[in-house]
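Re: [help] complex structure
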Amino acid sequence: DAGITQSPRHKVTETGTPVTLRCHQTENHRYMYWYRQDPGHGLRLIHYSYGVKDTDKGEVSDGYSVSRSKTEDFLLTLESATSSQTSVYFCAISESGTLNTEAFFGQGTRLTVV
Amino acid sequence: GEDVEQSLFLSVREGDSSVINCTYTDSSSTYLYWYKQEPGAGLQLLTYIFSNMDMKQDQRLTVLLNKKDKHLSLRIADTQTGDSAIYFCAEKTGSQGGKLIFGQGTELSVKP
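Output below.
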């Protein structure tokens, strides 16, 4: 298994509070991604990073921010959590952005906003 | 709207073949992927195919690609109860900056 660790694995938080999810990799891969998984929608890209301090938005980025201060860590922050952000969040890593490069996924973080 | 479409559920009997279907929209050079997600787990890459291929076979898995109709299928031969999972089709194209775009996922249920 690729060395990807997501933390926490489960979290319950209150509406309006900030929340930070962490993705840590030991593969030294350049690309890192945050997805959310919701029934009927599959996985949707929130943000991704193509290097330290280099990030870009995905298709559902509103309400989320990210930071990547070092290669191994990619943080996803919900600035003020809402119930619509209740979801399962997956981090993925990829050695490069070329089309035939495999992406490896973490185990997921289940976030509930009450 | 979604760029990749899948039916949501499929139920088969153990030992039968399963066929999971997917349609995509981007006609630029594309890699198409099949991922498997078991309950409570992340996604595991099963196989992938480049859009200039028609078919790829890997043990019990056969991927068929119809480029004209932008239709992709995953056939699992001799389906086992351990194959019960959600299967995601995904495309990766140059027009999307090399990002994976996923379908909704097909939940495969294998009955003994």
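Chain B touches chain A at residues 2, 4, 6, 8, 29-31, 35, 40-45, 48, 50, 88, 90, 92-94, 97-105 (CB under 8 Å).
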